[in-house]
Amino acid sequence: MKQVTALLLNWKRPDNMKQIIDCLMGQTAGVEIFLWNNNKKDPAKYGVDVKIHSSRNFLCWPRWLMASLARTEFVFTLDDDVILTRPTVIQECIDFFVKPNTPKDTILGIYGVKLNEASKYTKSRHIRKPGRNAKVDIVKGRFMFMRRDFVQKIPMGHELNRGDDIYISSFSKSKMIPAFLTGAWKDLPEGDVALYGQKHHKSGRQSAVDNYFKGRGLCHDGATACAVCK
Questions:
Q1: How confident is the model at residue 218 (pLDDT cuts 50, 70, 90)?
Q2: Which of 16, 47, 213, 228 could disulfide-link 188, Cβ–Cβ 3.0 to 4.6 Å?
Q3: Which region, left, alpha or beta, applies to residue 153 given φ > 0 means left and ψ of -120 to 50 means alpha?
Q4: Is the Cβ–Cβ distance between 125 and 116 less than 8 Å?
C-alpha cells in the first residue's frame, strides 16, 4: 500500500515533468502521483495515478486542493524545476517522521527561510544545503513533505494563489531543512517562466510574510495553541 502522495503541477516544462514522474516511480517507497495540468495547450499524456486538466492557470493553489483528496499518510510538493537524485529520498523522509517525538505538524524541505527580526523576506537567511539540520520559519514550495492529516486541517482559500508555501508554513512550529536532504536533489532547467523573475514576485512574498507571520514565535493566528497547531 502506498504511503505518500506527490502533488505535482504542470505549466510549461513538460520535459522536466516527464523526468520527475519517472524519478518518483523509481522511488523505493511507493508514491501515488497526483498531477494538476495548468497548461490547457499541453497535449502530453503523463502516466500518473490522478490527472486533472484545467482550462485556467490557477498557479500553486491546486496542489493543496489535491492534498485534500489524498488518502495516504504523507503528502509532498515537488516543483517542476527540481528532481530527486536517489531512489531512497522519500523513504528517508518517512523514516524521519517515525522517529520518537517528531511533532505531527513537522514540514521537511530542501529550501527554507529563517526570517530576521524585522521579518524582511529578501534580507533574511535563505537555506538550501545545510551541513546539519536547520530549523526555518518558511519551507519553500519546491519540496514540502508533511503528514496528510496536518495539511488537511488547514483552511484553504484563494489567497494561496500567491505565497502558498508561506501560508502553509505559518501553521507549523516544526519546520526543517534536514541535513540528509543535502545532495538529495538537483535543479532542472527553469526556462523563461520562473516565478521569481516576475515583476511583483518579491513584493508578493513580503506581503505574504506580513500577513501570515505577524506574531513570530506563536501560531499563525497569534494564539499559543490553535486548533491546527496543538
A1: very low
A2: 16
A3: alpha
A4: yes
